[in-house]
Write a structure and sequence with these properties.
Helix content is 8%, strand content 21%. It is mainly beta. It has a single domain, classed as Alpha-Beta Plaits (2-Layer Sandwich). Strand 2 and strand 3 form a beta hairpin. The longest helix has 5 residues.
């Protein structure tokens, strides 16, 4: 995959995630559930942000650049 602009991987705010699983319906291979909380595989995440757009709790955020 060639990208014109690099986007940071996303992260889940575990305090905000309510386990509704709506993000999983996007069909992204980077998303899974662990102990009723969404988890994003940082290696597979392309940073497209579709999962963040569907999250009703706004629990999926851009990972801060350190």
């Amino acid at each position: 995959i060639v990208r014109d602009e690099w986007k940071p991987a996303l992260r889940v705010d575990v305090e905000a995630c309510n386990g509704c699983r709506l993000c999983l319906q996007v069909g992204c291979p980077a998303l899974s559930m662990k102990e009723k909380i969404a988890v994003i595989d940082q290696v597979l995440c392309t940073g497209c942000g579709v999962c963040a757009q569907v999250c009703p709790e706004e629990a999926i955020l851009e990972k801060a650049v350190i």
